[in-house]
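QUALITY CONTROL LOG
STEP: pairwise intake check
CHECKER ROLE: data steward
CRITERIA: each record must contain a sequence immediately followed by its structure tokens, with no blank fields

ENTRY 1 OF 2
RESULT FIELD BELOW
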Amino acid sequence: MLASKDVQIRDPFVFPVAEEGKYYMFGSTDANIWGKGTGFDAYVSDDLQHWHGPFPVFRPKEDFFSDTNFWAPEVYFYQGRYYMFATFRRKDNGLLGTAVLAADRLLGPFEPYSDGPVTPESWSSLDGSLFVDEEGQPWMVFCHEWQQVGDGEVCAIRLSVDLNRAVSEPVLLFRASEAPWTTPYLSPRYPDQVNYVTDGPYVFRASSGDLYMLWAGFIDNTYALGIAKSESGRITGPWKHAEKALYQNDGGHGMVFRTFEGKLMLAIHTPNKTPHERPIFLEVLEDGSRIVSVKPSPPVQS
């Protein structure tokens, strides 16, 4: 059994199973997630502090369309099966894209389901996240990568009911520079480009019924997590950004889930440097129709 401080993971995604009283955590689990991809592992806990695992949930076969940069798996139960949305770097054009995998069990094994990425082939896209609207229409929210466009974008695309392909053109929801809290990212790889980062969008409804989106960027080159609210209550927005970041202590790529006690909990990784990234869990404080803040947490000791 491992303590949270001993689990190296980026982009933690928690799937609670009330019938078992257990939390299943997925994420980017390669020791060097910037290099060759080996697959995804999961961990299981009953207290969010101590974890069983790792359990291998996806291992690619030789004919898989990617062998590099296996990132940000998110797992959803939809129409009787488990679906994983995950980012991979394509072999054919070197660009990132989000593909869909599927399994009959929560711990897999997950197998390729979509025909490669469902994001646009010519885009560098990452961090796809599933959202099903009130009409039952599935959408995928994802990032159009800042390295390709400078000012990173968050977009949404309608998916087929069976989740295996896109059925619309992407809709631009916002650009990173529109948020008042984010600042330009100074990248030595792109010194002549004004860079604003979007990373890890995740959409959820608060207790009030309001629709929110978490997404990560940078403040003075330090990883941070922001939050926006849909003024229409629909995925297409418009999205109004909070004035200040929700978390700015070198942590981000967040998602929220309900604990078995009913608390709204934020999962992020911090710090944002390999191999020191660890999962932390912070209670989200709500005030009527507003997400106010998260309870502070002591720094993760690596």
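ENTRY 2 OF 2
RESULT FIELD BELOW
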Amino acid sequence: MNILFSFLPKPEQQANLIERFPHVKFYFQKPFDEETLRNAEVFVTYGEDINASHLEAADRLKWIMVASAGLEKMPLKEIASRNILVTNVRGIHKIPMAESILAHILSIKKSLPIIAQNQRNSIWSKKVYSSELYGSTALILGPGAIGGEVGRILQAFGVHTIGCNRSGEPSDFMDDMTSFSELKRALPKADFVISILPSTVETKNLLTNEHFHCMKPTAIFMNFGRGDVVKEEVLLQALQNNYIAYAVLDVFESEPLKEDHPFWKMENVVVSPHVSSHSSQYIVRALDIFTENLTKWLDEDPSLINVIDLERGY
């Protein structure tokens, strides 16, 4: 069996794979050689470097392991037509992303940006208007693995959590649940609206101008899922018209964010360059999932984890 990686794990991680699976031929190439892909049965990728033309040539390909959660840049229709199995690393982002989200919330609520600015300007001022998380409400769009971890931590701070998904069915660490169709009724209750939604047909442009009208003028909107959940002009208008107080953005419709974009200069916007999931443990956790699935694959065990529904895109 030939397995092609289009990114480079650390040398010791590569060696561990080779030692653990001696009957497998591993290729680690960045950028990858198309001839190697043509002969590969398994392709391990971040999901941004494979297109439909690659699939036409890779006639031996049976399984694509995506070392990220997002699949929106992949040719899913063509993959589905070939009946190629796709799995991803859903779940490994929950710790670093939950920590990042909490860090931003605490930073704003405890006025850390103002304190840091005062330090740079040598200003001793106690006029910092900090507030507590205790007793507030967070509406979490996408209460899956990441959203559940965010909910668990926020509940420890005394925050009431409301989860929102397509069906409204219960999710872990959510005090209440709502559905996409009932979202407008829940928004007026939320002090934090946190989107961790993937990019799918159902979530693209889910949030409209009407949704931001429903939010508290003191609300903080946070997007750590995908940038296309809301059109940037809609969000910009909501901030400029004070429909909401603050936005923390780790993802954008177009990345990198253009140098002349208004978000860079706005005092009530935090621009985070899609780094919330970064962690020294990222590849370690991704390879743990891969090795578990590869063991099952070689044993012809169909119960692989994180198998993607290619019609839904998640």
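INTAKE CHECK: passed for both entries
DESCRIPTIVE NOTE, ENTRY 2: The mean pLDDT is 96.
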